[in-house]
Amino acid sequence: MKQLVDEYIKYLKIEKARSPKTIESYKRYLDIFLKLTKVKKPSQITEETIKKYRIYLYDKNLKPQTYGYALIVLRNFLRFLLKKGIKTFNPELIELPKLHQREILILREEEVVRLLSAPKGQSLKEKRDKAILETLLSTGLRLSELVSLNKDQVNFKEGEIIIKGKGGKIRAVFLSSSAKEAIKSYLKERNDFEEALFVNLKNPPKRLTPRAVEKIVSFWARKSGITKKVTPHTLRHQFATKLLKNGVDLRSVQALLGHSNLSTTQIYTHLTREDLKEIHKRVFK
Question: Is 211 a catalytic site residue?
Answer without folding.
Answer: no
